[in-house]
Amino acid sequence: MAARLRSAPRRLAAPGRALFAPGMWPPRRIVGESLLSVVFGLLGAGVEALGHSGMVQIVAVGLAAGLLSPLRRALPATVLLVTAAGSVPFDGLTLLVLVAAWSAGRRIDGVGKAVGTFGLVYVLTLGLEVMQELPHFSLAHLVFGTLWLLVAIIVPGLAGRYWSQRRTLTDTLREYNAQLLRERAMIAGQARMRERQRIAQDMHDSLGHQLALIAVHTGALEVDRELTGRQREAVGVLREASVAAMHELREVVGLLRDGTQAPDPADTSRSPAASGADDAAAPSRGVAGIEGLVESSRNAGTAVELRSSGEPRPLLPTADHAAYRIAQEGLTNAHKHAPGAPITIELRYEPDSLVVEVANGPAPETAGTGRSVVSGGQGLTGLGERTRLMGGMVHAGPTADGGFRLAGVLPYTSPEGGVPSPVPGDAATTFVDPTGDFRQQTRAGSLGEGDPVMDGIGLPKELAKAMSRSKTSSGIAIGCGVAALIALLLVIAAVVGGILLLGEADKAMIEPKRYDAVKVGQSEAEVRKQLPQGDSFLTDDLDKGAPPVPEGAKCLSLNSTESGSSWRKDPVFRFCFKEGTLIEKKSFEVRN
Question: Where do the segments described as Disordered lie (predicted)?
Fold first, then answer.
């Protein structure tokens, strides 16, 4: 399991590259990436156009942004390096840097490789920024460049890597959870099988032995010459009942052992006199065996009538067996609670189900109904559960004439709508676990991006709820930590930037009244004492679009503290000196 956890990031990173191969991307992703490329291309061209670049440069930057966008999935490190370095001379690639950093944080395999890549990109981009501003480089350039690259490259990379690792962990936990559920199901199945085999063995060893003794003794008693014909007939009924009970025990033991035939408990202990009939002649335990039950009751001196209506139809093995059990339970209850009362068994083949009904009249006055009858009270309960599992029902209650009625409704098909199966022990049998249990099912296919983080397949509600709370709390805590880090960096950048801007403003800005106080013809030394030095990055672009400088003069351009005539224009005050004298002062606006 540890090896699987270690290899999970590689297994998730590899498909990202493989999907870039022709024909491997699904249509939905192709459309999404195409639209994203168009968006980045248009944004890059638009941002570049705001800088008054030429048409060729605008088109080139837009095409580069559009091409680099889909490549970030296959070549995350290369795209990040190219995009970050290209964003220094071309502002149109700045927005793509954020997405490329996020994608690189997700897809670069290995912590060392990721740290090396982001470190190289950071240093290279910062170096290009310094080289670009080298003629007018200052501490402010370094601070702003460092903070901007930290926010634009490092923070998205960390966020992307955290998201990727969290998804890797949750997908691995889901896979591990599914494996644990499968193993738990296997262990539970083996435990049930062992318990069934133990019960089957106990039934075989105890009940089988006792039934075999009954069969032997009744067989020997049946041939006793001192018995009358009536007594010999009753003993024969007992012997046949014991042999039938042994066959039923054999069937139950076989079902408990998942369909394997158990050895006949009478094989080793039954005498030839108790043999009765072999397996081929064993009485049926379905609808066909009800006639045998009726005949046995008639032999015991009870008046039993068997009726059948409708066209016989095939039943599921479990329904066929349940019909036999209903008839058997009804006869048993009538013999115990109303001995001597007439009994009627009716089989009605309805269009959708078989109705088995056993009704007896009131017990005769001379039957001794006041005697104590041993009854566990579990027969009807067992029948109700047996029929419920196959989609039927059982009803039991007194009749209007003082008798008792037991009726069962047995459908021809299974609850799932299947057809009758001729194979015993099919999916509908009550001894086989349902195959459609949702707790045993796992999601088919690989775990995609759109899958939930954890669905708690088959977990108890309390455990699933606890895991959900833990997952939510952990995600909120980490998310708040990342947000707090970003907020802290922005606050630091704002404070440091404000301090630097105040210092730079003192070097590069004057109020209009100071401009008005300076007069043409004053000496250069006197004027410069009243004005700041102007060596600031705020005055770097004040000469672009300015009026021509007088021949042979040296000028000092400063920003005004007032606003321009529009948001795209900055007011400028310029002072020109020649041969130690102020020969011109001019106020104008330049495009920002």
Answer: 256-284
